[in-house]
Amino acid sequence: MPDDRLDKILHEIIKQRNDLTKDQLLGLIAEKKRKIGSGFLTDTGAGYLVASELNIDLNNIGLNDYSLKDLGPGMVAVNVKSYFLAASGARSFNRKGGLEGTYRSVFLFDDSITTRLMLWDAQARDDSFATISVGEPIRVSNVTTRMGRDNVLEIHSSPQTKIELLDSHVDGSKRLDTVTLRTSDVGFARRGLVVRGFVTSDPKPISFQRQDGSAGKALQLTLSSQNSAESNLRLVLWSYRPEYETQVRRGMEIRLINLESKAQPAGSYELQGNEDTTIEFLTSSDINQQSTGEEPFVVISIGPITDFAGRQRRSMLLGRDKHTFLLTASDVSARLFDSIDSGDQIRLKNYFIKGDEIFVSNLSEDDLQLLGSSQEKLNQFKFRIQDLPNVHTAGLIELVVLAKPVAKDIILRDGKTVPMGEVLVGDETGESRLVAWRGLSDILNGLLPGARLLIYGAVPKTDSRGNHSIELRDYSSVQHILS
Predict the structure, then answer these.
(1) Residue 344: what pLDDT?
(2) What pLDDT does 291 receive?
(3) Mean pLDDT over residues 53-72, rounded?
(4) Which of 249, 275, 373, 393 is geometrically suited to a Cys-Cys bond with 324, CB 3.0 to 4.6 A?
């Protein structure tokens, strides 16, 4: 779909280099396409390369709404585009002087980020989110930002704030997977969490007395990242929905939306929810054990061995029937992937599938059977930049680097700083960004404009502004293509 990005690039180059004309720049773009390969670059992609060679900074062209990751404290009258997660009911409070006020707590999310939006008075009383579903795109205009009492960034409404539901066909919708934590990931105190885990105890109703003297009920249970009693996390739902008492059963995998994690005296953490917390039932309590005799998996990508909590870990992305599944091996088992390459077909024994993950208890050489290679099956997971809006699983993509990589230090909501690297890339159908976080950002170091890459295990992403990007994960690998 045509856009004005090339015109913006040409305008910015001429603005910074007034010795060049538009015709001269178009000639340089045509020459760049000829050298790289006209079937591999668009005019816009070649324009990025020309700008890079001329040392032109294009970072500030084409500003738009703020996404959650762009926000910082002290911003005034800004517009925020994100996705709806959860909303509380309207609640009353007394201001200084005895006047009554109203507030409503709303959580918005985007890739790996959740942020609380505080609505006040008229906006809080008008339940604008009653008909908005989880993951639908919204724009909140004329808001301010500040640090909350828990030292976490918040968005606050003003009398001029407007809440707008956007068209999901135009702006896309967002899956909860982007902000879903495993119970093993909960090691900090935070509101507005989305947590997924297995129920490892029978839910237990308990009674208590509220501060106003009225009687209340809570539901207590434990969750674990795996269907076992290891690493259990206690969960208490205060004033829960009555149907959860019979619907939640031991052995189920569930996802809870809008939880708060609280630090406990012993150094552990506890999850707490209330009547605003909702539960998604991901599986029943019966585990369907898989066995041999099925169509084999094709290996899409194998990541490097990494250190996680003092243990070696390695992840492999498998594909079958246009679906992808993640198999992770730890310690000695991680070395079992050394002799396996992308495109290999394997058959697994003694495994079961939960969602998009494959579990094998005590993975050994006997559980993996190599069946030869199939490039045809691997290519079923290949995509191009123009496909990003419609691709929802990781796969492989061939790209050319259009600019020098940029390294940043990103401050997370818990105050920790992590490295993030990104580089502009393109193919014959368009341009996008290749993004890598933490240790994976080192993969982008040293990339030069014009380099060709084949990314295995590339993950399509869409941000709150509808911009598409490609992300590296711990199961991704990057191959340099020699001209």
Answers:
(1) 95
(2) 46
(3) 71
(4) 393
443, 428, 454, 434: which is closest to 36 by C-alpha? Answer: 428
- Cα torsion 249, 253, 259, 260 to 10°: value is 90
**Cα angle value 6/12/17 (rounded, 5°):** 125
Query: In the structure encoding, which two tokens stand for residue 256, read together?
Result: 């809870």
Structural class in CATH, domain 177-283:
mainly beta
289-374: CATH homologous superfamily?
Answer: Nucleic acid-binding proteins (2.40.50.140)
Q: Locate 425 and state its tokens.
A: 């890339």
Would the pLDDT of 346 be above 90? yes
- Under DSSP, the state recorded for 4 is S
Judge whether 71-171 and 177-283 match in fold. Answer: yes
**CATH of region 382-481, choose from 3.40.50.80, 2.40.50.140, 2.60.40.10, 2.30.40.10:** 2.40.50.140
Q: pTM (2 decimals)?
A: 0.51
CATH hierarchy code of domain 71-171: 2.40.50.140
pLDDT at 62: 42
Helix, strand, or coil (residue 163): strand
Ranges of H-type helices in 307-363? none
What pLDDT shows up at residue 60? 53
pLDDT of residue 286: 44
